[in-house]
């Protein structure tokens, strides 16, 4: 009665239907997940997605497939490449998020006034990056179309991020994409810096 708005229809829906609608990037499903459920897997999901990305980069290292003498102790140090890739993926993800928050604060400072607004948007962005989990099946079932699959996964994650920003801050479609674009610019700047230093794949 007080808000004069319809009830969230997803309250009565089966979780599988909600998940399918979230995969289809429906705004109502995102609103239900972000505001009407108590999901506390944001941090764990972020770490797992970063591990998936680090694993993919680790496999793409040129020297990771070289076979050495079993007595060679250096081959055991190759696991450090995985941790290095995890660190690089973490810094790139952080720069992407910093770019988004900076762009949104610059365009509309009133949207991120309180700490709770900031935390809600951060949780929404981390939760909407669940598409990165598809990196593992794409690598396991490797075929000729793997680069195309990885590009589709990247686009899907960006669309999900856009919906999360739009739903969380109640924006039109243009501002979230502009914020994501600026986040990508900052992330690619970090990637170029790592490549110049010889740290990235």
TrEMBL record:
The job of this chain, per UniProt, is described as: Mediator of sterol homeostasis involved in sterol uptake, trafficking and distribution into membranes.
Localization, per the record, is:
Endoplasmic reticulum membrane
| Listed name of the protein | Protein ARV
- Does Lipid metabolism count among this protein's keywords? yes
| Sequence intervals crossing the membrane | 85-106, 118-141, 148-169, 175-194
GO cellular component labels:
cortical endoplasmic reticulum; endoplasmic reticulum membrane; Golgi apparatus
Instruction: Report the membrane topology from the UniProt record.
Output: Multi-pass membrane protein
Question: What InterPro entries does this protein map onto?
Answer: Arv1
Q: Into which family does the record put it?
A: Belongs to the ARV1 family.
Major localization class:
endoplasmic reticulum
Q: Which UniProt keywords apply?
A: Endoplasmic reticulum, Lipid metabolism, Lipid transport, Membrane, Transmembrane, Transmembrane helix, Transport
Q: Which GO terms describe its biological process?
A: intracellular sterol transport; regulation of plasma membrane sterol distribution; sphingolipid metabolic process; sterol metabolic process
Species the sequence originates in: Podiceps cristatus
Lineage here is:
Eukaryota, Metazoa, Chordata, Craniata, Vertebrata
- Pfam families, alphabetized: Arv1
> Is Lipid metabolism one of the keywords?
yes
- UniProt superkingdom: Eukaryota
